[in-house]
Every structure is written in C-alpha cells, then in structure tokens.
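Many introductory courses stop at the sequence. We go one step further.
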Amino acid sequence: MSLPAPDNADADHPWYQPLGLRVWNIWATQNGDTLAEFNGKCLNNHIKLYKFNRLLAAKGFALNNDQLVNIKKKLSIDFVVADRSPHDLKKMCEYCGTETDIMKVCAYSRTQLLAFGESMGLEFCDLEDVLVKHGGGMYTRSG
C-alpha cells in the first residue's frame, strides 16, 4: 500500500544566499498545515531529501512523482546513483546505515531489496541500476 501524497510540497531557500552556500528548506503541507519540514545541513542534497522523505513518511505521507521531480530539480539532484564511484556508493550506504557490500545486497530477497532501496532513498528502478552496474554480474533485473 502506498502512502498518500501531501496537498503541496516544495523546496526554497532565503533569497540572499549565494549559489553553493544555500541551505535549502524542504516542506510539505496538507490542508494548509505543515506536515514536515527539513532545513538542516547535510553532506549533500540527496541526503537532505532522503531525511525529509523519512520525516514525511513518519507522518503517513509520501511525495508524488511531480512533487519529487520538482524538488529534485530545485536541489540540483540530477545525478544517477549508479554512475557514482564504488567509493561514493559505499560512503552513501554507510551514511544511511545500510549494508555497504553491494555483492551481499545482490542476494537479498525482493522484500529485502525494497527495504534497502527505501533506506537509501532510491526508487526500485534506480536500485536495480546500482545492482547491475556494481554487483559484478550477481544481479539480474526483475521481470
């Protein structure tokens, strides 16, 4: 069962912050009330969005695709996780508190893969790209 999307979700920053030094605020509302808001400093904007998504899920909501695309665009999250180096991928796994050995992840059940992907803030198709590229041939895409 998927979670309902909030009425509104967006990202912004104070107008006076220069590019590269912006501290983004991500927020979501339902019926005019703030559901979740995150503006803490993070290693990168992908992790900031991940933390916001966790806050929002704790309230029983999830961003819809349009909201997610809009926020990613504003935060300049346009990289493909599978294209990151093995070192960067390992650091990301460590930061999210997940298994860092992608070879082990390749042997996970579908349920475990879904949980792993969620803990990393990845859609399943993005997770599969990571496993195919970094799994040393141990993972094949699901049907």
